[in-house]
């Protein structure tokens, strides 16, 4: 098969489409003929050499895909050859075929095209496992999403609104804020021209928000703590601004704040299967009802993975970027 290979750690130009061996299929795995693969910022970090795949995972980038089942392992009973599916991967999505544990496979939601289904697994599993399963975001609460126009952000806005949450977002341009508003965001904040903590306080009558989903890390840490309400929860899923900062922690005690963090890729297959099952039960109905829509910025051929990474790193995109073998 053909797959995108990271020839050496470096810039987007190190991504090359090459002929490689087909993946082997384990007893509890399915083999998918890839129709589309989602591009995620974590893929760019892996390309630079800073985010190696877990032991036993494919060396090729790609954390989600959609496609058709072409083989199943001996102990797999739910999926059969010919099923159209999408899947959460530990790697290997940038390829014509990928093997994945059966518990990380989802049916393509009704009314969603096979290729666009690739835009959901990573964002849905990330958002559901963090702010819903761990931070327990619930109807009537307030929720601040940093990077509201990203793949994570555009999904998080929609699923939070579906569950009755008041949504705040930050983004870096008026165009991006308009998109977030159109997806349902209640309050849009341009982080380049506004102090988001001050604006959050203003919009909440001084209280702050209940939950924050953060991708920036160090530079936002103090502002995030200052933006949280009594019993507020900060969930960190990325360090785009770096992991180190100096902080005044007094508010953590005074307002009983909770600081949480998690990755998805390094979780065990058993843990991922639990998350995927929850997503199918709690998120898929919202997609099938039309309340959560795919937001796809661009589709590119697999041979143009380098260009997909350039777009991702420019942050010019709104929503997801997909690669098509």
Automatic annotation (TrEMBL):
Spell out the SMART domains in the cross-references.
PKS_ER
Which InterPro entries does UniProt cross-reference here? ADH-like_C, ADH-like_N, ER, GroES-like_sf, NAD(P)-bd_dom_sf, Quinone_OxRdtase_PIG3
**Top-rank lineage group of the source organism:** Eukaryota
List the Gene3D superfamilies hit by this protein, alphabetically. Medium-chain alcohol dehydrogenases, catalytic domain, NAD(P)-binding Rossmann-like Domain
- Protein keywords: NADP, Oxidoreductase
Residue stretches making up the Enoyl reductase (ER) domain: 10-323
The record describes its quaternary structure and partners as: Homodimer.
Q: What is this protein called?
A: Enoyl reductase (ER) domain-containing protein
Q: Which organism is it from?
A: Platanthera guangdongensis
